[in-house]
């Protein structure tokens, strides 16, 4: 579980003033060992102790002698705790028992000290028992090692707490403590720090249940400490990863209102009829708020429905004769590529239709995805973009470029046809503008809108809002799970707390997939759908911020060799940016300038465009 872990941090509530963080470098908690002592003698009647060898008397002397170890055998610069916590002997008031059993715990902070304690205890038990004519034995059961903080990580905890709450909230007094902790095993492998967060409201009020010993059966955890614990973890992550979380000061409110949801308690999605939804209402209620919506009764007069029978079955023979020799990309989920991913390749549409019709596509889970039908057959107008999604700057830009393009290979677009059998599946993801061509392969933006319309069949959608995504990541906060309904809870410990939105999308209905929302899609029947990726004024600012982040990442990667570029480093960075996401600042600026001159541009479009163009520093 520690593979790939660079640093590790943990905490425990502690007997310190409320909100105080106790931390130091070096030993924080003790090594623990448990022991059991047995003293055996013949025993006898309580009225004639002179005729017995009494193990109780010997046990008492052993208890007293053991207490001398810490004061007489351990240096004043070292420390050890030896506590006998159980003594059991005898069952009758008038009988001296034949054995006494004792047990307890040892705490220390170094192997050398423990070695002295172990040696002296064996000697005391065996020899004291012998002096009283009985037999004494002792057994040791080792437990957790010393919890040792690495100094740099302990300093990080102190630094972030001081910055967040003030230096008075960081203490080292009272450390180390003689408790023990299994977190020590992690710190033996990985640099890190373990610290305490205080829970005591009033240190002087011993009657308060929240001020009692942590392991008392009357102790009551102080919930008021939770905001400090959560914020401290977030501050550490923010410091170490160089990221910025939103409004950490609101954490107390978040904790008070936090509710755990499981997948069985999925939220719902708004469903509206196209005959009752105007474009203005769509923009105001959904697109501007970046929320999903299902719109029913879309595309009643589209020619694509000629591909289907009245029973909503595909016209296989007609499709084979018309498009059978065209190649389209497929994903075969039953097989893996040499890189461990799903097998991807191109196949003639006619051959895929044979697989689909015969049931082989369902058996092998072969899914035809990202077919650029509009690009391949520009004169077959099988559908028109619904009015809700027509303000599409991305595909508009590629159409403008295509008119000027003279090469034999057509430019890509972001309009796709999907066709898959029952059970075919698109893993949990957020949309990327990706044009699956070998000549032009763009992975443009990770935060665009998309829309999808079912022609036949139906899909199950599961959405997660951007605010839920952190719960979908693995225990290291890196990768997002790929199936919200089937995952390893030990690898994705927070996934069950994420709040999903579930939807069954019927035929002739469209769904808006908002920017940055993770979603997974399963075809519950053989399903044919049309899908577009796009952006416009409502999410262009998100797109621009993404451009900026990507450029910063590129510049960071080439910073070590910038001197060799002279004055061309900016150009090199833009070139790499274009290779990474399919567009550089210059083309993005050209797109915005062209859209600003478009006669269909609205005042809102112009405001959003000018805001970004000003930041682009147009000459």
From TrEMBL:
Pfam families: Cupin_8 (PF13621), M20_dimer (PF07687), Peptidase_M20 (PF01546). One of its GO terms (molecular function) is hydrolase activity. Keywords: Hydrolase. NCBIfam families: amidohydrolases. PANTHER family: METALLOPEPTIDASE, PUTATIVE (AFU_ORTHOLOGUE AFUA_6G09600)-RELATED, PEPTIDASE M20 FAMILY MEMBER. Belongs to the peptidase M20 family. This is JmjC domain-containing protein.
